Amino acid sequence: MAKEPEGKSSATEAPTVTEDGERQWYIRKHLLVGWGALLLFVTLGVVLESLHGFKVAWYHNVGMETRRLTWRLAHAHGTFLAVVNLAFAMTLYVLGESAQGAWRRIASGCLLGATIALPAGFFLGGVVIYGGDPGLGIFLSPLGAVLLVIAVSATIYRMLR
After folding, report:
1. Which of 6, 12, 21, 39 has the fewest CB neighbours in a 10 Å radius?
2. Cα–Cα dist 131/134, whole Å
3. Tens of pLDDT along 87-145?
4. Closest CA to 93 of 20, 6, 17
5. In sequence order, which ranges of the chain are alpha helices (DSSP H)?
6. Element spanning 130, H or E
7. What b-and-e string marks burial along 4-18, b requiring 16 or more CB atoms within 10 Å of the CB?
8. Nearest 10 degrees: CA dihedral of 128, 134, 135, 139?
């Protein structure tokens, strides 16, 4: 009878996941999110520069200052959070065995939420402008900021233990 690969189980048993396998899954997830977000937000930056360079009216005119600001903030925060995801993946790799526990799940989830909510709030806030004020989408940004603070705090807490 052939021996099953480690981590695999028979059809009647639930598959087992080793702690190292789970840690590797988190590392890959944050590497993929980090590089994917970096591609997205660098591309957004190129598009914004093109809109500015070609002086597209709905982006460049004087009354569109709020849109330009919020979309630049979306680009900057998105790029920053892409790099933070890459740093988080590296942190999990370096911590090795000590990168276990609920803190990892909390930090990972909050970081992923922040990566979506913070730049999305700025971007959506600039889609529709109300008399110079950003649209309602801007309310996602503070939520993203809180999620980012939780993720960073959980990671620092684990590193100090």
Report:
1. 12
2. 8
3. 999 999 999 877 788 999 999 999 999 999 999 999 999 999 999 999 999 999 999 99
4. 20
5. 19-53, 57-60, 65-95, 102-127, 140-160
6. strand 129-130
7. eeeeeeeeeeeeeee
8. 150
Tokens representing residue 45 in the block: 């930056």
Adjacent-strand bridge partners of 129: 134
> Is residue 30 exposed (0-12), middle (13-18) or buried (19+ Cβ within 10 Å)?
buried
- Residue 130 has φ and ψ, to the nearest 5°, of -110, 95
Instruction: Please state, in angstroms and rounded to a whole number, the distance separating the CA atoms of residues 8 and 28.
Output: 20
3-state SS, residue 135: coil
Question: What is this structure's pTM?
Answer: 0.86
Token pair 């909390």 in the structure block, residue? 106
Interatomic CA distance for residues 139 and 155, integer angstroms: 25
